[in-house]
Amino acid sequence: MLRAIAVRAGLSRSGQLVAPSVCRAMSSTAGDSNSLVLTEEVGSKGVITLNRPKALNAINLEMVRLIYDAMKQWESTKSVVIVKSVGDKAFCAGGDVRAITETSNVELARKFFSTEYRLNALIGSYRPTYIAFIDGITMGGGVGLSVHGKYRIATERTMFAMPETAIGLFPDVGGGYFLPRLEGKLGLYLGLTGFRLKGRDVHKAGVATHYVESKNLAALEQQLLATTSGAEVESVLDRFSEKRDAGAEFVLAKQLQKINQCFSAPTVEAIFQQLERDGSEWAQNTLKLLHKMSPTSMVVTQKQLELGGKMDLKTCLKMEYRLAVHHAIDSDFKEGVRALLIDRDQKPRWNPATLAEVDPARIEQFFGPLPDGDELQFEEEGPKASL
Question: Which among 40, 172, 320, 332 is annotated as catalytic?
Answer without folding.
Answer: 172
